[in-house]
Amino acid sequence: MVKQSLSIQQKLLQTQRLSPVQIQTVKLIQLPTVELLPRVQKELEENPILEEDESAEPEDAPKNVSISEYTDDTPSYRLYVNNQGKDLKPQYNTFQVKEGFRQSLERQLGFCQLSDHDRRIALFIIGMIDDDGYLRRASDMLSYDVSVKAGIETTEEEVEQIVELIQTFEPAGIGARDLRECLLLQLQASAHTPAQQLAETILQDYFEPFAKKHYDRIVSRLGITEEQLKEAIAEIRRLNPSPGGQIDDSYSDQAQQVVPDFVIDLDGDQLEMTMPRYSVPELRINRRYADTLMNAAKSATREGKEAEAFVKQKLDSAKWFIEALKQRQNTLRNTMNAIIEFQKDYFMDGDETKLKPMVLKNIAEKTGYDISTISRVVNSKYVQTHFGVFSLKYFFSEGLTNTEGEEVSTREVKNILTQSIGEEDKRKPLTDEHLVEVLKEKGYNVARRTVAKYREQLGIPVARLRKEI
Questions:
Q1: Model-level pTM greater than 0.70?
Q2: What separation in angstroms does the CA of 401 have from each of 404, 432, 440?
Q3: Distances (CA, A) of 140 to 136, 154, 155, 177, 181
Q4: Coil, strand or helix at 347
Q5: Residues 120-138 pLDDT 10s
Q6: Average pLDDT in the 160-173 region?
Q7: CATH 1.10.10.60 fits 399-466, yes or no
Q8: Which long-range contacts (C-beta less than 8 Å, at least 24 apart) are formed by 424-432?
Q9: Could you tell me the residue ranges of all domains in the chain?
């Protein structure tokens, strides 16, 4: 018989747990101002212990809640919940961000005479279209998705018919499976001039040599002149390769409001930063449930204890939420002040060449916050300056050293790349190797692979694809 021994071991593990206030703060920090108001409204609706502070002088929530603090006489009418408040539609300082195209497609679908069955399939297909406006699924796979994921019995032929219907919607080119089909759909929807007919033929029958800029082969095989090819290419270049990403205002009856979270004003040679609250109210503890709390405390019944626990939980929740709002405000203010201090020269006049290389770590070190906290502050936040409205992400970029030993922003290098490519001879576009030489002449030692990376980030194709006749 084999003897087994049991042993008890003790291990000391150190773990970090966030307090309720910290958890609330993390959630609130990542919200932009435009989303903070509905979040506060939601809390007011769900927690009767919270109320708006009409005096605009926020009352600190008590650290320890005790019954003795709630001994004032509360009129009975104040025991009823009233969260309607004032008109919550302020006149924001906003700029417009165009709405996505899916709502437009759904509105257009509403004008089509379809059965409920076909309409459900069409709505599912619209939901499958990506942000660029493409439907990147073959009909057989799409019919499988409709059947399995949406639970709608269908066939490949039926799905293809509905896809073809959606492809007739505005903007032209929507719902295409690839770039070639997208461009063809747009040409087919336009007036057929000789140049457009030739462009359609090129895309239909000679798309590969066209994509590779083998213009001589196209001229030879079609028996056309170079001038005719130029006119056809000009027609193709007028088309939109991303119909979902650049939807026109005529397809949108709504626009997303982007509310600046910070406003920077220039007063002489001083920068002043403010954080508009708009209609986000100051909050305080609502004492209207004082009598309820007192009565519950006096009762020894199970219901009384449960009532007391409920009110105590709501008091704690209200206290944590108020504190989290204060911490959010302080965190955002300190972070924005650190960014202003780091980029002061830029904020004075908006000269992009004065924008210093800056990463999240730089601001984390200045503020003492974690990089993750800075990331949450920066995400989806906007600042209004005297020269425009910008996302906070705009001010962050990596850096490199020029030939004079000065650290410059990669954005400065990208601007030079964009300018150089814009001024190049389109018959002989600058290769990445040539761009390296151009940058070197201007005092920037950048490797070819870095140039390629920056070019791709700018959405600029390689030299071969920039060639024109």
A1: no
A2: 8, 20, 12
A3: 12, 11, 8, 13, 18
A4: helix
A5: 999 999 989 988 889 988 8
A6: 92
A7: yes
A8: 424/466, 426/466, 426/467, 426/468, 427/467, 427/468, 427/469, 428/467, 429/463, 429/464, 429/466, 429/467, 430/463, 431/462, 431/463, 432/462, 432/463
A9: 20-75+286-322, 100-171+240-255, 399-466
